[in-house]
Amino acid sequence: MTTTNEHLAGLSATTLLRFATAGSVDDGKSTLVGRLLHDSKSVLADQLEAVEHASRSRGQEAPDLALLTDGLRAEREQGITIDVAYRYFATPQRRFILADTPGHVQYTRNMVTGASTAELTVILVDARNGVVEQTRRHAAIAALLRVPHVVLAVNKMDLVAYEESVFAAIAEEFTAYASELGVPEITAIPISALAGDNVVEPSANMDWYGGPTVLEHLETVPVSHDLTGCHARFPVQYVIRPQTAEHPDYRGYAGQIAAGTFRVGESVTVLPSGRTSKVAGIDLLGEPVDVAWTPQSVTLLLEDDIDISRGDLIVPSSDVPSATQDIEATVCHVADQPLAVGQRVLLKHTTRTVKAIVKEIPSKLTLDDLSQHPAPGQLVANDIGKVLVRTAEPLALDAYADSRRTGSFLLIDPADGTTLAAGMAGESFAGAKASAAEQDDEGWDF
Protein backbone atom coordinates (compact mmCIF):
# COMPACT_ATOMS: atom_id res chain seq x y z
CA MET A 1 0.00 0.00 0.00
CA THR A 2 2.83 2.37 0.83
CA THR A 3 4.54 1.67 -2.49
CA THR A 4 1.33 2.45 -4.39
CA ASN A 5 0.84 5.72 -2.51
CA GLU A 6 4.42 6.76 -3.20
CA HIS A 7 3.91 6.02 -6.88
CA LEU A 8 0.72 8.08 -6.99
CA ALA A 9 2.40 10.95 -5.13
CA GLY A 10 5.23 10.96 -7.65
CA LEU A 11 2.78 10.86 -10.55
CA SER A 12 0.86 13.82 -9.13
CA ALA A 13 4.06 15.78 -8.66
CA THR A 14 4.85 15.60 -12.38
CA THR A 15 1.38 16.58 -13.60
CA LEU A 16 0.27 19.55 -11.46
CA LEU A 17 1.56 23.14 -11.66
CA ARG A 18 0.35 25.95 -9.45
CA PHE A 19 1.06 29.34 -11.00
CA ALA A 20 0.03 32.95 -10.60
CA THR A 21 -0.18 35.93 -12.92
CA ALA A 22 0.84 39.44 -11.91
CA GLY A 23 1.64 42.79 -13.46
CA SER A 24 0.64 46.42 -13.55
CA VAL A 25 -2.94 47.45 -14.27
CA ASP A 26 -4.05 47.13 -17.91
CA ASP A 27 -1.03 45.03 -18.84
CA GLY A 28 -3.42 42.31 -20.02
CA LYS A 29 -3.27 39.62 -17.35
CA SER A 30 -6.92 38.62 -17.60
CA THR A 31 -6.71 38.66 -21.39
CA LEU A 32 -3.67 36.37 -21.27
CA VAL A 33 -5.46 33.96 -18.95
CA GLY A 34 -8.55 34.06 -21.15
CA ARG A 35 -6.41 33.38 -24.21
CA LEU A 36 -4.73 30.45 -22.44
CA LEU A 37 -8.10 28.96 -21.52
CA HIS A 38 -9.62 29.62 -24.94
CA ASP A 39 -6.77 28.43 -27.15
CA SER A 40 -6.07 25.36 -25.00
CA LYS A 41 -9.74 24.35 -25.44
CA SER A 42 -10.38 24.69 -21.69
CA VAL A 43 -13.51 26.86 -22.04
CA LEU A 44 -16.99 25.35 -22.08
CA ALA A 45 -19.27 26.36 -24.94
CA ASP A 46 -21.77 28.10 -22.65
CA GLN A 47 -18.95 30.07 -20.97
CA LEU A 48 -17.69 31.31 -24.33
CA GLU A 49 -21.23 32.16 -25.42
CA ALA A 50 -21.76 34.22 -22.26
CA VAL A 51 -18.50 36.11 -22.88
CA GLU A 52 -19.47 36.78 -26.49
CA HIS A 53 -22.86 38.10 -25.38
CA ALA A 54 -21.32 40.34 -22.70
CA SER A 55 -18.76 41.65 -25.21
CA ARG A 56 -21.44 42.49 -27.79
CA SER A 57 -23.47 44.33 -25.15
CA ARG A 58 -20.41 46.51 -24.53
CA GLY A 59 -20.06 47.27 -28.24
CA GLN A 60 -17.10 44.95 -28.87
CA GLU A 61 -17.03 42.90 -32.05
CA ALA A 62 -14.58 40.25 -30.85
CA PRO A 63 -15.12 38.39 -27.56
CA ASP A 64 -13.30 39.98 -24.62
CA LEU A 65 -11.43 36.97 -23.25
CA ALA A 66 -10.64 38.85 -20.03
CA LEU A 67 -14.25 38.27 -19.02
CA LEU A 68 -13.47 34.57 -18.61
CA THR A 69 -11.64 35.43 -15.37
CA ASP A 70 -13.07 38.79 -14.29
CA GLY A 71 -16.15 37.41 -12.60
CA LEU A 72 -17.11 40.19 -10.19
CA ARG A 73 -19.60 42.74 -11.44
CA ALA A 74 -17.33 45.62 -10.41
CA GLU A 75 -14.48 44.02 -12.34
CA ARG A 76 -16.52 43.85 -15.52
CA GLU A 77 -17.90 47.36 -15.17
CA GLN A 78 -14.49 48.92 -14.55
CA GLY A 79 -12.50 46.64 -16.84
CA ILE A 80 -10.07 45.74 -14.04
CA THR A 81 -9.27 42.76 -11.84
CA ILE A 82 -10.02 43.26 -8.13
CA ASP A 83 -10.02 39.82 -6.52
CA VAL A 84 -7.82 36.77 -7.02
CA ALA A 85 -9.56 34.51 -9.55
CA TYR A 86 -8.64 30.84 -9.37
CA ARG A 87 -9.01 28.75 -12.50
CA TYR A 88 -8.44 25.05 -13.05
CA PHE A 89 -7.58 23.66 -16.48
CA ALA A 90 -5.58 20.87 -18.02
CA THR A 91 -3.74 19.83 -21.15
CA PRO A 92 -2.59 16.30 -22.05
CA GLN A 93 0.79 17.13 -20.50
CA ARG A 94 -0.14 18.73 -17.18
CA ARG A 95 -2.89 19.96 -14.85
CA PHE A 96 -2.91 23.61 -13.75
CA ILE A 97 -4.18 25.67 -10.83
CA LEU A 98 -4.01 29.33 -11.82
CA ALA A 99 -4.34 32.40 -9.60
CA ASP A 100 -5.09 35.53 -11.66
CA THR A 101 -4.11 38.40 -9.36
CA PRO A 102 -4.95 42.13 -9.57
CA GLY A 103 -2.63 44.76 -10.99
CA HIS A 104 -3.69 47.86 -9.05
CA VAL A 105 -1.23 48.96 -6.36
CA GLN A 106 -3.98 48.92 -3.72
CA TYR A 107 -4.59 45.23 -4.48
CA THR A 108 -0.92 44.16 -4.28
CA ARG A 109 -1.77 42.27 -1.10
CA ASN A 110 -3.98 40.00 -3.20
CA MET A 111 -0.90 38.97 -5.16
CA VAL A 112 0.69 37.81 -1.92
CA THR A 113 -2.27 35.49 -1.44
CA GLY A 114 -2.19 34.18 -5.00
CA ALA A 115 1.58 33.66 -5.21
CA SER A 116 2.14 32.22 -1.71
CA THR A 117 1.60 28.64 -2.91
CA ALA A 118 2.73 29.10 -6.53
CA GLU A 119 5.68 27.32 -8.10
CA LEU A 120 5.72 29.79 -10.99
CA THR A 121 4.68 33.40 -11.47
CA VAL A 122 3.94 35.05 -14.81
CA ILE A 123 4.69 38.78 -14.60
CA LEU A 124 3.27 40.80 -17.48
CA VAL A 125 4.78 43.99 -18.82
CA ASP A 126 3.23 46.32 -21.40
CA ALA A 127 5.80 46.54 -24.20
CA ARG A 128 5.00 50.25 -24.59
CA ASN A 129 5.69 51.09 -20.94
CA GLY A 130 8.46 48.67 -19.99
CA VAL A 131 9.37 47.90 -16.39
CA VAL A 132 7.40 50.13 -14.00
CA GLU A 133 7.22 50.34 -10.20
CA GLN A 134 4.45 47.76 -9.95
CA THR A 135 6.55 45.36 -12.05
CA ARG A 136 9.39 45.74 -9.57
CA ARG A 137 6.96 45.32 -6.66
CA HIS A 138 5.65 42.04 -8.09
CA ALA A 139 9.18 40.80 -8.77
CA ALA A 140 10.12 41.63 -5.17
CA ILE A 141 7.10 39.74 -3.82
CA ALA A 142 7.90 36.72 -6.02
CA ALA A 143 11.45 36.77 -4.66
CA LEU A 144 10.31 37.17 -1.05
CA LEU A 145 7.85 34.29 -1.43
CA ARG A 146 10.64 32.14 -2.92
CA VAL A 147 8.69 31.38 -6.09
CA PRO A 148 11.20 29.17 -7.95
CA HIS A 149 10.27 30.14 -11.53
CA VAL A 150 9.39 33.56 -12.95
CA VAL A 151 8.16 34.18 -16.50
CA LEU A 152 8.40 37.71 -17.90
CA ALA A 153 5.64 38.02 -20.51
CA VAL A 154 6.24 41.16 -22.57
CA ASN A 155 2.70 41.79 -23.78
CA LYS A 156 1.17 43.97 -26.50
CA MET A 157 4.07 43.38 -28.87
CA ASP A 158 1.60 44.06 -31.71
CA LEU A 159 1.47 47.69 -30.55
CA VAL A 160 5.24 48.12 -30.95
CA ALA A 161 5.38 46.52 -34.42
CA TYR A 162 6.80 43.29 -32.95
CA GLU A 163 10.22 44.96 -32.60
CA GLU A 164 12.89 42.62 -31.19
CA SER A 165 14.89 45.54 -29.76
CA VAL A 166 11.94 46.62 -27.58
CA PHE A 167 11.59 43.13 -26.14
CA ALA A 168 15.34 42.72 -25.62
CA ALA A 169 15.67 45.99 -23.68
CA ILE A 170 12.76 45.15 -21.34
CA ALA A 171 13.98 41.59 -20.80
CA GLU A 172 17.49 42.80 -19.96
CA GLU A 173 16.28 45.41 -17.46
CA PHE A 174 13.88 43.03 -15.70
CA THR A 175 16.36 40.13 -15.59
CA ALA A 176 19.02 42.34 -13.99
CA TYR A 177 16.57 43.55 -11.32
CA ALA A 178 15.09 40.12 -10.55
CA SER A 179 18.52 38.48 -10.46
CA GLU A 180 19.65 41.02 -7.86
CA LEU A 181 16.67 39.93 -5.75
CA GLY A 182 17.79 36.32 -6.03
CA VAL A 183 15.06 34.97 -8.35
CA PRO A 184 16.57 31.61 -9.38
CA GLU A 185 15.10 31.31 -12.88
CA ILE A 186 13.74 33.93 -15.28
CA THR A 187 12.25 33.19 -18.70
CA ALA A 188 11.29 36.08 -20.99
CA ILE A 189 8.64 35.56 -23.70
CA PRO A 190 7.33 38.21 -26.17
CA ILE A 191 3.54 37.89 -26.61
CA SER A 192 0.34 39.51 -27.72
CA ALA A 193 -2.43 38.16 -25.52
CA LEU A 194 -5.09 39.91 -27.59
CA ALA A 195 -3.89 38.46 -30.91
CA GLY A 196 -2.66 35.18 -29.47
CA ASP A 197 1.01 35.52 -30.45
CA ASN A 198 3.24 33.09 -28.50
CA VAL A 199 0.54 32.31 -25.93
CA VAL A 200 -0.47 28.86 -27.10
CA GLU A 201 0.64 28.96 -30.74
CA PRO A 202 4.02 30.29 -32.00
CA SER A 203 3.86 33.74 -33.54
CA ALA A 204 4.34 34.25 -37.27
CA ASN A 205 5.07 37.91 -36.54
CA MET A 206 8.16 37.29 -34.39
CA ASP A 207 10.35 34.89 -36.34
CA TRP A 208 13.34 36.33 -34.45
CA TYR A 209 12.13 34.59 -31.26
CA GLY A 210 13.06 30.93 -30.98
CA GLY A 211 11.94 30.17 -27.44
CA PRO A 212 8.82 28.43 -26.11
CA THR A 213 5.28 29.77 -26.06
CA VAL A 214 3.75 30.54 -22.68
CA LEU A 215 1.78 27.28 -22.60
CA GLU A 216 4.73 25.23 -23.81
CA HIS A 217 6.85 26.61 -20.99
CA LEU A 218 4.09 25.99 -18.43
CA GLU A 219 3.81 22.39 -19.66
CA THR A 220 7.53 21.66 -19.54
CA VAL A 221 9.00 23.70 -16.66
CA PRO A 222 10.41 21.30 -14.05
CA VAL A 223 8.33 21.44 -10.89
CA SER A 224 9.20 19.65 -7.67
CA HIS A 225 6.55 19.09 -5.03
CA ASP A 226 8.89 16.83 -3.09
CA LEU A 227 8.85 18.22 0.43
CA THR A 228 9.57 14.81 1.91
CA GLY A 229 13.22 15.71 2.33
CA CYS A 230 12.43 18.85 4.36
CA HIS A 231 12.36 19.09 8.15
CA ALA A 232 9.41 16.90 9.21
CA ARG A 233 6.71 18.98 10.89
CA PHE A 234 3.20 17.99 12.01
CA PRO A 235 1.04 20.79 13.44
CA VAL A 236 -1.76 19.28 15.51
CA GLN A 237 -5.15 20.48 14.35
CA TYR A 238 -7.53 18.31 16.37
CA VAL A 239 -7.38 15.67 19.11
CA ILE A 240 -9.60 12.63 18.42
CA ARG A 241 -11.00 10.89 21.51
CA PRO A 242 -14.07 8.78 20.51
CA GLN A 243 -14.38 7.14 23.97
CA THR A 244 -16.74 4.55 22.51
CA ALA A 245 -17.11 0.90 23.36
CA GLU A 246 -15.27 0.06 20.12
CA HIS A 247 -12.45 2.56 20.77
CA PRO A 248 -12.33 3.15 24.53
CA ASP A 249 -8.68 4.20 24.69
CA TYR A 250 -8.16 5.72 21.24
CA ARG A 251 -6.26 9.03 21.33
CA GLY A 252 -5.22 10.36 17.94
CA TYR A 253 -3.76 13.66 16.80
CA ALA A 254 -5.18 14.79 13.47
CA GLY A 255 -3.71 17.32 11.06
CA GLN A 256 -1.91 17.86 7.78
CA ILE A 257 1.79 17.07 7.54
CA ALA A 258 3.37 20.44 6.74
CA ALA A 259 6.69 19.01 5.56
CA GLY A 260 8.74 15.85 5.64
CA THR A 261 7.86 12.24 6.41
CA PHE A 262 6.71 10.38 9.54
CA ARG A 263 7.09 6.64 10.15
CA VAL A 264 5.71 4.19 12.69
CA GLY A 265 8.30 3.54 15.41
CA GLU A 266 9.98 6.93 14.95
CA SER A 267 10.97 8.89 18.05
CA VAL A 268 9.20 12.24 18.16
CA THR A 269 9.17 15.35 20.34
CA VAL A 270 6.09 17.46 21.09
CA LEU A 271 6.53 21.22 21.19
CA PRO A 272 6.34 23.44 23.15
CA SER A 273 6.32 20.96 26.08
CA GLY A 274 9.40 19.08 24.90
CA ARG A 275 7.89 15.70 25.88
CA THR A 276 9.06 12.73 23.83
CA SER A 277 7.42 9.52 22.61
CA LYS A 278 7.29 7.20 19.61
CA VAL A 279 4.81 6.97 16.74
CA ALA A 280 2.66 3.96 17.58
CA GLY A 281 0.49 4.18 14.47
CA ILE A 282 -0.58 6.34 11.53
CA ASP A 283 -4.14 6.39 10.22
CA LEU A 284 -4.69 7.60 6.65
CA LEU A 285 -8.28 7.72 5.32
CA GLY A 286 -9.32 5.29 8.03
CA GLU A 287 -6.61 2.76 7.23
CA PRO A 288 -3.32 2.14 9.08
CA VAL A 289 -0.12 2.88 7.16
CA ASP A 290 3.56 2.58 8.04
CA VAL A 291 4.66 5.91 6.57
CA ALA A 292 3.04 9.24 5.66
CA TRP A 293 4.39 12.38 4.04
CA THR A 294 3.44 15.94 3.16
CA PRO A 295 0.81 17.10 2.28
CA GLN A 296 -1.22 14.12 3.50
CA SER A 297 -3.82 14.62 6.22
CA VAL A 298 -3.37 11.88 8.80
CA THR A 299 -3.91 10.94 12.43
CA LEU A 300 -0.81 10.14 14.49
CA LEU A 301 -1.01 7.81 17.50
CA LEU A 302 1.76 7.92 20.10
CA GLU A 303 2.97 5.23 22.50
CA ASP A 304 2.75 7.52 25.55
CA ASP A 305 -0.21 9.41 26.98
CA ILE A 306 0.94 13.02 26.60
CA ASP A 307 -1.07 16.19 27.07
CA ILE A 308 -1.29 17.47 23.48
CA SER A 309 -3.71 20.02 22.07
CA ARG A 310 -4.38 22.04 18.93
CA GLY A 311 -1.40 24.21 18.05
CA ASP A 312 1.23 21.80 19.36
CA LEU A 313 3.92 20.70 16.92
CA ILE A 314 5.12 17.10 16.57
CA VAL A 315 8.64 16.75 15.12
CA PRO A 316 11.30 14.02 14.91
CA SER A 317 13.44 13.93 18.03
CA SER A 318 16.49 13.94 15.76
CA ASP A 319 15.43 17.25 14.17
CA VAL A 320 13.92 19.54 16.81
CA PRO A 321 13.73 23.21 15.79
CA SER A 322 14.83 25.84 18.27
CA ALA A 323 11.99 27.78 19.87
CA THR A 324 12.15 31.54 20.34
CA GLN A 325 10.01 34.44 21.47
CA ASP A 326 11.89 36.96 19.30
CA ILE A 327 11.04 36.56 15.63
CA GLU A 328 12.96 38.43 12.94
CA ALA A 329 11.10 38.47 9.66
CA THR A 330 10.19 40.28 6.48
CA VAL A 331 6.49 41.10 6.14
CA CYS A 332 4.18 42.23 3.39
CA HIS A 333 1.63 44.56 4.97
CA VAL A 334 -1.83 43.77 3.61
CA ALA A 335 -4.27 45.73 5.78
CA ASP A 336 -5.68 49.24 5.32
CA GLN A 337 -4.73 50.22 8.87
CA PRO A 338 -0.98 50.63 9.49
CA LEU A 339 1.29 48.34 11.51
CA ALA A 340 3.15 50.37 14.14
CA VAL A 341 5.93 49.82 16.66
CA GLY A 342 4.45 48.83 20.03
CA GLN A 343 1.26 47.45 18.48
CA ARG A 344 -0.27 44.37 20.09
CA VAL A 345 -1.12 41.62 17.59
CA LEU A 346 -1.89 37.94 17.31
CA LEU A 347 0.66 35.79 15.50
CA LYS A 348 -0.70 32.71 13.71
CA HIS A 349 1.85 30.04 12.84
CA THR A 350 0.44 26.81 11.33
CA THR A 351 -2.36 25.80 13.74
CA ARG A 352 -1.10 27.87 16.68
CA THR A 353 -2.05 31.45 17.53
CA VAL A 354 -0.25 33.42 20.25
CA LYS A 355 -0.26 36.99 21.54
CA ALA A 356 2.61 39.19 20.38
CA ILE A 357 3.87 42.76 20.24
CA VAL A 358 5.72 44.56 17.43
CA LYS A 359 9.00 45.56 19.09
CA GLU A 360 10.78 47.11 16.12
CA ILE A 361 10.33 47.96 12.45
CA PRO A 362 14.00 48.41 11.51
CA SER A 363 13.44 49.26 7.85
CA LYS A 364 11.10 49.47 4.88
CA LEU A 365 12.08 48.33 1.39
CA THR A 366 12.37 50.92 -1.37
CA LEU A 367 11.54 49.11 -4.58
CA ASP A 368 13.27 51.48 -7.00
CA ASP A 369 16.81 50.62 -5.90
CA LEU A 370 16.19 47.87 -3.29
CA SER A 371 17.55 50.11 -0.54
CA GLN A 372 16.25 49.98 3.01
CA HIS A 373 14.56 53.07 4.47
CA PRO A 374 15.57 52.93 8.16
CA ALA A 375 13.16 53.14 11.10
CA PRO A 376 9.92 54.03 9.27
CA GLY A 377 7.95 53.71 12.52
CA GLN A 378 5.07 51.98 10.76
CA LEU A 379 4.14 50.04 7.65
CA VAL A 380 1.09 50.91 5.55
CA ALA A 381 -0.84 48.90 2.97
CA ASN A 382 1.40 47.14 0.41
CA ASP A 383 4.65 48.08 2.22
CA ILE A 384 7.40 45.46 2.53
CA GLY A 385 9.54 45.78 5.63
CA LYS A 386 11.56 44.06 8.31
CA VAL A 387 10.04 43.54 11.74
CA LEU A 388 11.00 42.19 15.13
CA VAL A 389 8.09 40.58 16.94
CA ARG A 390 8.11 39.41 20.56
CA THR A 391 5.65 36.59 21.29
CA ALA A 392 4.07 35.73 24.64
CA GLU A 393 5.07 32.07 24.21
CA PRO A 394 8.01 30.41 22.42
CA LEU A 395 7.38 29.38 18.80
CA ALA A 396 9.29 26.90 16.66
CA LEU A 397 9.57 28.52 13.24
CA ASP A 398 11.80 27.27 10.47
CA ALA A 399 13.53 29.75 8.21
CA TYR A 400 11.24 30.58 5.29
CA ALA A 401 14.13 29.72 2.96
CA ASP A 402 14.00 26.15 4.29
CA SER A 403 10.22 25.72 4.39
CA ARG A 404 7.55 27.99 2.92
CA ARG A 405 4.94 26.16 5.03
CA THR A 406 6.54 26.33 8.50
CA GLY A 407 8.56 29.50 7.96
CA SER A 408 5.52 31.69 7.29
CA PHE A 409 3.04 33.32 9.63
CA LEU A 410 0.28 35.92 9.83
CA LEU A 411 -0.03 38.98 12.04
CA ILE A 412 -3.67 39.54 13.02
CA ASP A 413 -5.54 42.42 14.68
CA PRO A 414 -6.84 40.98 17.99
CA ALA A 415 -9.76 43.44 18.01
CA ASP A 416 -11.51 42.34 14.84
CA GLY A 417 -9.52 39.45 13.37
CA THR A 418 -8.24 41.44 10.38
CA THR A 419 -5.08 40.03 8.79
CA LEU A 420 -2.45 42.76 9.06
CA ALA A 421 0.63 41.25 7.48
CA ALA A 422 2.05 38.08 5.96
CA GLY A 423 5.45 37.25 7.42
CA MET A 424 8.45 35.22 6.31
CA ALA A 425 10.92 34.25 9.03
CA GLY A 426 14.65 34.60 8.60
CA GLU A 427 16.47 35.95 5.57
CA SER A 428 14.53 37.86 2.94
CA PHE A 429 15.83 37.92 -0.63
CA ALA A 430 17.85 34.86 -1.59
CA GLY A 431 20.65 36.64 -3.41
CA ALA A 432 20.37 40.24 -2.29
CA LYS A 433 23.44 41.89 -0.80
CA ALA A 434 23.17 43.58 2.59
CA SER A 435 24.08 47.23 2.59
CA ALA A 436 26.61 48.67 5.03
CA ALA A 437 23.81 50.24 7.05
CA GLU A 438 22.18 46.85 7.47
CA GLN A 439 25.37 45.25 8.76
CA ASP A 440 25.95 47.64 11.64
CA ASP A 441 24.96 47.03 15.23
CA GLU A 442 21.58 48.68 14.87
CA GLY A 443 20.45 46.79 11.77
CA TRP A 444 19.95 43.17 10.85
CA ASP A 445 22.40 41.29 8.70
CA PHE A 446 20.04 40.01 6.04
Q: How would you describe the overall organization of this protein?
A:
The protein is of the alpha+beta class and 446 residues long. It is 20% helix and 33% strand. The chain has 8 helices and 25 strands. Strands 7, 8, 9, 11, 12, 13, 15 and 16 form an 8-stranded antiparallel beta sheet that branches. The protein has a 6-stranded mixed beta sheet with strand order 2-3-1-4-5-6, sandwiched between helices. Helix 6 (133-144) crosses helix 7. It is globular.
Question: How would you summarize this macromolecular structure in one to three sentences?
Answer:
The protein is α+β, with helices and mostly antiparallel strands and 446 residues long. Helix content is 20%, strand content 33%. The two termini are 45 Å apart.
Task: Detail the topology: elements first, then pairings.
Blueprint: H1 2-15, E1 16-23, H2 29-39, H3 45-57, H4 73-78, E2 85-90, E3 95-100, H5 108-115, E4 120-126, H6 133-144, E5 149-155, H7 164-181, E6 186-190, H8 214-220, E7 234-235, E8 238-240, E9 252-256, E10 261-263, E11 267-271, E12 275-284, E13 287-289, E14 291-293, E15 297-302, E16 313-316, E17 324-333, E18 339-340, E19 344-349, E20 352-366, E21 371-374, E22 378-379, E23 384-395, E24 408-412, E25 419-425
Parallel strand pairs: 1-3, 1-4, 4-5, 5-6
Antiparallel strand pairs: 2-3, 7-16, 8-9, 9-15, 10-14, 11-12, 11-16, 12-13, 12-15, 17-23, 17-25, 18-22, 19-20, 19-24, 20-21, 20-23, 24-25
